[in-house]
Amino acid sequence: MFPHKDGNITVKIPYKKGKEYDVKIGCFGDGTVEREFVHKNGRLNGLYKEYYESGVLAYCSNYVDDKIDGIAVSYDYNSNKKRRKELCKM
To answer: For the chain, how far is it from start to end, CA to CA, in angstroms?
Structure first.
């Protein structure tokens, strides 16, 4: 965990059996979840989500070796889909 300048946690890094677990959680200064992502072998691999400060989902996509793979969706503040893009890794 890394403390924010105001003392709150900005990144939570779970551990399992003494090893860093793949899921990382970034937080706003008040501790509200800002993003969740899967980090394997030093790269983004898996689901990536970003949230508004209210906790509402803002963006969701899948990554393979640090590149977006599949569908990326952004949401407005009311959880309505704003944009949907189908992206494939190159």
So the answer is: 34
pTM of the entire predicted model: 0.71
User: Which residue in this structure is represented by tokens 């969701």?
Assistant: 60
pLDDT in tens, 21-37: 677 888 888 888 888 98
The rounded distance, in Å, linking the Cα atoms of 83 and 65 is 23
72-86 residue pLDDT tens: 888 888 877 777 766
Q: Is 83 exposed, middle or buried (0-12, 13-18, 19+ CB in 10 A)?
A: exposed
Q: Rounded to an integer, what distance in angstroms lies between the CA atom of residue 30 and that of residue 39?
A: 23
Contacts of 46 (CB under 8 A, 6+ apart): 22, 37, 38, 40, 62, 63
Task: Report how far residue 40's alpha carbon sits from residue 80's, in angstroms, rounded to the nearest whole number.
Answer: 30
